[in-house]
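task queued by scheduler; priority normal; single chain, no ligands, no partner chains; default sampling; output format set to structure tokens
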Amino acid sequence: GLPMKFNVGLPIDPKLGFIEKIVEHKDNISEVYFSWGSFPGGRHAQTLAENAYPWEAEAKLIETLRYLSSEGLKFNLLFNANCYGAESLSRSLFTRIGDTVDYIATEFGLESVTTTSPLIAGFIKDNFDDIKTRASVNMEIGSVEGMDYLAYKFDGYYMKREYNRDLAKIRELRAWCDKNGKGLYMLANSGCLNNCSAHAFHDNLVAHEAEIAKLDNAYGFSGICHGYLKGRIEEYLRLTNFIRPEDLHLVADYFDGIKLATRVNKNPTAVLDAYLRGYHRGQLTGLLEPDHSGVFYPAIIENSMIDESFTKTVLECDKNCAECGYCREICKKSIVRLEEI
């Protein structure tokens, strides 16, 4: 395949030969990203492994980083929570961030920090000359203005997921980044719904999950997508923005790195494998985060049955989804009902 540059997330409990796979393909992996300790994040805390004490999980993470560092891999640290609550502006938060970044940079090396907070980005810029700052995909930056407003804080940006299949927009953002010496990155395998109206609320809940877990809660909330997609399998391609392993080559050259969400996937090795190979046979939803396989079962979307011209077509279409049934037709033809096999 192409010498693509993947940014790969460390799972809380990396199993199934995932670390070995990273090392084996290190020429294609520009970064390994992770969160640290009890810092709120855009995903569950890195040390909250189900079957380990927090200090065991931290020891395991340190051991993993030491090994990957010895193999020459580069690291990206996440401070990507949507909210830092009452601590957002506090001296104590920035002291902890400074100590953490200092420790990781000294012990293992640290290339870059991805954050949602302009203040954290500014703090890193002011205190660590050689560490790059990057705007998190959770900031949903999808315009030249959005990048320009924070150009003094960030060295690079994750593009809003919804533009993954919009070549004109990708070219526009890339041209601005080139002109302004900035990096442009994408998240390739999001299973999130486009323009999800519950996204900000959900990200805020995740950021506060440690506090929330201590309370007597009246409700649970795990996103609205699972409920919405029930009975709507034919709409799946239209409502999402991932790029399949087969089609990544159509856009890869516009990005400095391509992020794969692998931190909470049941089988991160399979995800990495599929994207390294540029081919996946089997249910499509299992490659994505969130994974909606359970919603559709016993029906699956068989990735290898998706028309090979699909992404090429939607990259340049006029996005008039209300009047066009193209994505629905493509999706329909790729649905397999397991009970019929």
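post-processing summary
- The first strand starts at residue 6 and ends at 9.
- The mean pLDDT is 95.
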